[in-house]
């Protein structure tokens, strides 16, 4: 059985870049890796509804924290069997955003912390009710919110298909979200966490070794 490894972080943190480097490092060690990114825009109707709502095309739906969280969760529920099958066929299933993204952004929108009502509700929905596979390891790519915002803005200017949505342009939300992520990692929410400094080049070789070893520090590396 393979390991489900999730990369979490703010918009513009560099999750895709870390995923690319970690994939190469894992394959260099002889591991088979498959990747998945949420929301699955263009693949799942719930993800497409998320995209439309975040770009102001579905009336006031984006204002509903719980409504948006359910759409994010339904996208993952639809992919659950694929994840289970991939875990049988591969050593590592590497996922860009998972349940913790929903927890962090929803709690931040409601000005709650990791121990608040929203995170408890979300855990019951995605893990207990929907039965999503629980990660073996969660990587928090930590960057200052200002740096993440600058990267997201640059990406918007240079990539025609990467227009920022209402979550990405909300600086206050991004700062609150960063704090919730820190709390989730510090408490070991849902699965072990490793915090990776996104402001410097990560040692993906060492990270790959930790992933394959099947253990991680209690909260931070």
UniProtKB/TrEMBL annotation:
Xref: CDD domains: TMPK
InterPro entries named among the record's database cross-references: P-loop_NTPase (IPR027417), Thymidylate_kin-like_dom (IPR039430), Thymidylate_kinase (IPR018094)
GO cellular component annotations of the record: cytosol
Keyword Transferase: yes
Coiled coil: none
Entry function: Phosphorylation of dTMP to form dTDP in both de novo and salvage pathways of dTTP synthesis.
Family as reported in the entry's similarity comment: Belongs to the thymidylate kinase family.
Protein name, UniProt field: Thymidylate kinase
Gene that produces this protein: tmk_2
